[in-house]
């Protein structure tokens, strides 16, 4: 089984971080173009992408001047993730570009038979802070760009997802955000914070 994470940039002018976990071996690198992204991860079983991969229900686009704008700026997943921290509305200029590129990436990867999930690495990383997988992340951290680090966190979420260790936010028919399922902090602290 192989797992990949993609920290997607809104355009091909900016760095997209990619991480691949294959048979326990980790590879991180950066790419730019749409085709480079697809080629990099299309052979993975599961790919987790740090970008919105769907539109709010009822919307055909994210333009403010379209009649579909009455359906709002957020998916249910975007509202539910607020309890872990703030998120930007999909209609904010940068998010609009990112979301449309994310949807194209999802569709292209799905046509290659890849299981594609959406995640939020900054939130996931906070949640995994006490988990053992964080050790693997830290041992690679110094040589990585911030985009590569987020991609690696996303790849870890893809791995956890395949193991069933995940929390799914939002409505599956609208598009969900996958986060790690981690142990409650108090049980971790009782074993870790021994003097
Ligand atoms: Zn529209």
Keywords:
single chain, 195 residues, alpha/beta, Nucleotidyltransferase, domain 5, 7-stranded mixed beta sheet, 21% strand, disordered C terminus, binds zinc ion
Average pLDDT, all residues:
89
Q: What can be said about the biggest beta sheet?
A: 7 strands, mixed
How would you spell out the order of helices and strands? Answer: EEEHEHHEHHHEEH
Quote the CATH topology. Answer: Nucleotidyltransferase, domain 5
Structural class of the helices, strands and pairings? alpha/beta
- Distinct small-molecule ligands in the complex: zinc ion
Q: What is the strand tally?
A: 7
CATH-scheme architecture: 2-Layer Sandwich
Described by its quaternary structure, the protein is single chain
* Gap between N and C termini: 39 Å
Q: Please give the domain count.
A: 1
Give a written overview of the molecule.
This protein has about 200 residues and is of the alpha/beta class. It has a single domain, classed as Nucleotidyltransferase, domain 5, CATH 3.30.420. About 35% of the residues lie in helices and about 20% in strands. The protein has 7 helices and 7 strands. A 7-stranded mixed beta sheet has the order 3-2-1-4-5-7-6. A hairpin with a 3-residue loop joins strand 6 and strand 7. Helix 4 crosses helix 6 and helix 5 runs antiparallel to helix 6. The chain is globular, with a radius of gyration of 17 Å. It starts with a strand and ends with a helix. The C terminus is likely disordered. The chain binds zinc ion. The site of zinc ion has 6 residues, from loops.
């Amino acid at each position: 089984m192989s797992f990949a994470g993609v920290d997607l940039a809104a355009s091909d002018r900016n760095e997209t971080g990619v991480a691949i976990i294959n048979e326990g071996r980790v590879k991180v690198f950066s790419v730019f173009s749409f085709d480079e992204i697809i080629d990099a991860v299309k052979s993975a079983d599961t790919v987790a992408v740090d970008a919105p991969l769907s539109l709010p229900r009822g919307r055909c686009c994210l333009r403010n001047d379209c009649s579909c704008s009455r359906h709002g700026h957020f998916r249910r997943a975007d509202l539910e993730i607020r309890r872990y921290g703030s998120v930007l509305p999909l209609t904010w200029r940068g998010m609009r570009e990112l979301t449309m590129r994310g949807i194209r990436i999802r569709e292209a990867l799905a046509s290659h038979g890849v299981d594609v999930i959406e995640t939020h690495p900054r939130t996931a990383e906070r949640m995994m802070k006490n988990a053992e997988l964080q050790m693997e992340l830290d041992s690679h951290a110094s040589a990585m760009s911030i985009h590569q680090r987020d991609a690696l966190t996303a790849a870890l979420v893809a791995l956890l997802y395949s193991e069933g260790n995940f929390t799914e936010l939002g409505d599956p028919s609208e598009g969900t955000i996958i986060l790690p399922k981690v142990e409650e902090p108090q049980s971790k602290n009782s074993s870790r914070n021994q003097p």
